[in-house]
């Protein structure tokens, strides 16, 4: 999650700090193509303070002046954090997880809602969000092909910095271990309940998922 967080917030140090009133005015008025919800509403809906939302909004607006980010721009921004690998596939899956309404664009509200869950949400909220990321076709289940696509995308993104050097069948082995633990009834798919139960009763599994979350 550090990559996404850094993308839209680190740029604050490069410019003068805008006044509180100016940011609030921008959030409350239609000054871009998309008008985000007001600070008070977002503060109530997330685990961020008003000041934190101001900082995040300034970074988001600096990268996305229109008030929304499309997938191509998202991929370009994300690729900056993984110059030695190919982040395009993982950025695609991550973008779809942020784009909860499947509109093809991510608004500031979408961004801070997901960020709030991943940084400050409960274990249940984080796991539910991760399940949605892995459920690529959004049918309510995770199958082996979907998890294989996600795991391979992560390895591709890390590039030569994966250590030890990966064998060709490493992603498949990783997925097989996950499914052996998660697919309780051995029907070939993992439901949300199976995912939640497996993760919360297996510390090693939870740690593996937390490692994956670190690349978001």
UniProtKB/TrEMBL annotation:
Gene3D superfamilies: EF-hand. SMART domains: EFh. PANTHER family: CALCIUM BINDING PROTEINS, KV CHANNEL-INTERACTING PROTEIN 1. CDD domains: EFh. Its main location: membrane. GO terms for biological process: regulation of potassium ion transmembrane transport. It comes from Castor canadensis. The keyword Cell membrane applies. The keyword Disulfide bond does not apply. It is found in: Cell membrane. Pfam families: EF-hand_7, EF-hand_8. Belongs to the recoverin family. GO terms for cellular component: voltage-gated potassium channel complex. Residues 1-21 are annotated as: Disordered. Residues 86-121, 122-157, 170-205 form the EF-hand domain. Keywords: Calcium, Cell membrane, Ion channel, Ion transport, Membrane, Metal-binding, Potassium, Potassium channel, Potassium transport, Repeat, Transport, Voltage-gated channel. This is Kv channel-interacting protein 1 isoform X5.
